Automatic annotation (TrEMBL):
Pfam family of the protein (one): CarbopepD_reg_2
Name of the protein in its database record: Carboxypeptidase-like protein
Lineage, broadest ranks: Bacteria, Pseudomonadati, Bacteroidota, Cytophagia, Cytophagales
Recorded superkingdom: Bacteria
Ranges in a coiled coil: none
SUPFAM superfamilies reported for this sequence: Carboxypeptidase regulatory domain-like
Sorted UniProt keywords: Carboxypeptidase, Hydrolase, Membrane, Protease, Transmembrane, Transmembrane helix
Bilayer-spanning residue ranges: 6-25
UniProt keyword annotation of ATP-binding present: no
GO MF: carboxypeptidase activity
């Protein structure tokens, strides 16, 4: 009986050591509040606006890109666009269309833009 009890205590001590090792060495640092939020879903802000040429004509199919990303959209048939950026992101939008000079606009806190693209030199639009 004493031998069985000793084996039982040895077994329990081994389990305790293994459990303690998992507890100590398998711990991951607690994520910061914003990291936890970013893992579960991105909070976004919609940026909307229009793109025109120098004459005020609304421009369809202008490429609107969030600089440094692959996220983009095109203006619709009446020159309007809508794109979402991550809330708090320091975003710059790049507007480009063949025959026009590309334009970059830093958003800051803006959520609505009216963009004017200038024709490239020698191009009349």
């Amino acid at each position: 009986m004493a031998k069985t009890l000793k084996s039982y205590h040895t077994f329990l001590a081994s389990l305790f050591v293994i459990a303690a090792a998992f507890f100590l060495f398998d711990r991951r640092p607690e994520p910061a509040a914003n990291e936890l939020f970013m893992e579960t879903g991105h909070m976004t802000a919609d940026i909307e606006g229009t793109v025109r040429n120098e004459d005020g004509t609304l421009l369809p199919e202008v490429h609107v890109l969030i600089k440094g990303t692959q996220r983009s959209t095109l203006t619709n048939a009446v020159g309007r666009f809508l794109i979402s950026v991550n809330a708090g992101e320091e975003a710059t939008l790049v507007f480009s269309l063949t025959g026009y000079q590309s334009q970059e606009i830093h958003l800051g806190t803006k959520t609505s833009l009216d963009v004017m693209l200038k024709a490239e030199s020698g191009q009349a639009r």
